[in-house]
Each structure stands twice: as structure tokens, then as C-alpha cells.
Amino acid sequence: MSKISVVSAVVAVSALMSSIDCAQAASKCVKGEHKPPFSLGWANIYSVPTWMKQTTDTITQEVDQLKSQGLVSKLMITDAQGNANTQIQQIQSMIDAKVDAILIDAGSATALNRVIADACGKGIAVLNFDSLVDTDELTAKIDTDQLEWGQAAADWMVKQIGGKGKIIVMNGPAGISVSDDRRKGAESVLKAHPDVTVLAETNTEYNVAPAQEAMTNLLFANSDIDGVLALGGSLSAGAVLAMDKQGRALVPMTGENYRQFLELWKDKGLKGWATMQPNWLGALAAYTAVQALQGKDVPAFVKVPLPVIDDASLASYIDRAKDFPSDGYIYSRYDQAMFAKLLAQK
Fold first, then answer.
1. Are 258 and 326 a contacting pair, CB within 8 Å?
2. Does residue 21 lie within any of the structural domains?
3. I need a surface site. Which of 96, 145, 218, 227 has the fewest CB within 10 A?
């Protein structure tokens, strides 16, 4: 074989290997022809809670920016009103409409698996954030580490009460991955500290009124408590209001970046700790979907670091409170440059 033939063969093989590498690097589920501007679907489990309204706002704002960049044409939004079966039907309608990508905050860890696999099989990018499903037949999951969330909250509580005492645990809805995983994370710490007694615990919606009612009932049944391990911001706000109404002395309490809780924390001199499930996880999901549709390889799991809100950082959140709903969450700032850095994590 001549030198020219050898060189030509090498070039051909290199080109073939390069095309194989590119094909292997493509994001999962994305196949077939996807050309900008893309159509996106946002399958919301429910729109009533303020957290979800704020999340939808971040998605629509991100989509508006992507539209201005010529990358997105439309956003289809559905509301399952808390019903996982309805959410399945709405996702199916998005598949039938041949959207390019679907964003999902799941109403069940398992019920959506089949329809998600169907979307993936049809070449649709599927991005799951916040409340996660237990299937990997999708493009990417985007979340903070909920186990770490629970562990950090429980660690802080144990230190505040000196490694022993009686606490009440407040959880979000049972069966929702965010709530269940936070509780699992907390349990790993509580088991290591047998002198910390869980007097009682409850599961409620992430809303102040039901949390306050639940805490009121628990206070009547438990006169002596040393701390409240609330694994959600509106839960801790409800706990503070319940204790205040009964004239009970406030105890160390964990929570989240819920505006009312942060304001009560400051006003009442509470011993508090909080972290955040950023509402812009939805915006990040929209950005990630477009990256995947453009042929870029995105991580199967995008981990968003958990910030810590303590006495030192509380004021920086309170200073921005006026920019958020009175019953909303004060979340951190975000932009596409930050999203690109999160997707580049190894």
C-alpha cells in the first residue's frame, strides 16, 4: 500500500472513530432530528404552592431568554393538581404533541416510570428535577442532595441540644422523594445519637396552615421539647406560629429559605439553621434540555450545592425579602453562566 493510501486509511478510520465518539457522547434519550428552535413541555405536579409558582416563573423567564437566543419556540405547561395519574396523561399528551423535551417535577417516585421511558424511547429529552423518579431512563436528574439536606439539619440540631434531648420531627408529604430522602438523611444522624429522642413526627403539605395545625396537636401531647427538626421552610414557620400562639418558649429549629420563617427567625431571635431547594432548578432543567438537544453531552445527575443559612448569612436574605412573595422562598441569584459551570462539574 502506498504512503498516500495509508494516510487516507488512517484519516478515514480517525473520522469514523470521531463520529462514534460523538454518537456515544450524545445525551441519553436525545435521538432523531432536533433543530432549534425547540419546543419544551413543563409537566408540573401542582401549581398552587408558592414554591411551585416561583419555580414556574424561573422556567418561563429562562425560556424567554432562550427564545431571544433563537433556541426555543414554545413552552407547553400542564398542572396535574397533585394527581400522579393526571401527570402521566399530561406527559403522554406532550409525547403525542412531539415536543423536543419534557421537564418533570414528579408526583410519584415510581408511577411515572413507564411514560418517562416511553418519552425517552421516542427520542425526547427528559429532565427530572426536585422530586425525583427512581428510573434512569431519562436524560438527566437535577437536584440538591436531599440526604445531605437531612444529615446537615440533624447534625446542627444534635449540636444545639448538646447531643441529648427530646425533639419533634416535621416532614413534608410521605411518598415524595424530596421529603422521604431528607428524613432518611436525618435518620442516619439520629441513630448515631441514641440520647436524642424523637417524641413525635408528622407529615404535612409544604404549607404553613397544615403545618401549624399539626404542630399545635403535637404540642398539646408533648409538654417538654428541646428542638424542632423541621425538614421544610413552611413547616418551621408553622411550628413557630403554633408555639407562639400557645406561649411556648421557642427552641432550636431547622428550616428552609421560606420568607416567613426567615423573618420570624430574625424578629424572635430564634436559634435557627436553614438551607435551600432553589426554585431555579426548573430554569436549570430548561437550560440543560436545550444543551442536550443541541447535541451536547450533559451529566446524568447534576448536583446543585446546598447553601447554608445561619445567623451570619440571615441578613443577606432578609435584605432581599421585598423582592419575593410574602408566602414565598427567598432564593439565590442565578444565570446561564452559573448553569454552564454546574453542567461542567465532574
1. no
2. no
3. 96
